[in-house]
Amino acid sequence: MDITRNTTLAVWMAEHGYSSNSLADAVNRALEHLTGRAGGLDGSSVRAWKAGRVTWPKSATRRALEDVTGLPATALGFVPRRRPPSTPAAPQQEDPDMKRRTLVGGLAAAAAAAAAAPGTATRRIGMGDVDRLQQRFAEIVASDHRHGGQLGIEQQAAALAEEALNLQHAGSASQRVRSSLYASAAAFRSSAMWAAIDGRRYDVAKAHMREAQALAEMSGDQAIKFRIWSHAGTMYRHMGRPADAIAANDVARNLHLTRRDPLFASLGLARQGAIQGTAQNRAGTRRAFDQAQEAMLRADPADYRPVWMRAFYDQAELDSLALSAHLALGDHPTAEFHAHRCLSALRPHMVRSRAIATTRLAHAQLAQGAPDAATATAMKVPTDAATRHARVARMLQEFGAALRATAPGSSTVQTWNEHAALWRTPA
Question: Contact at 8 Å (CB) between 179 and 221?
Answer without folding.
Answer: yes
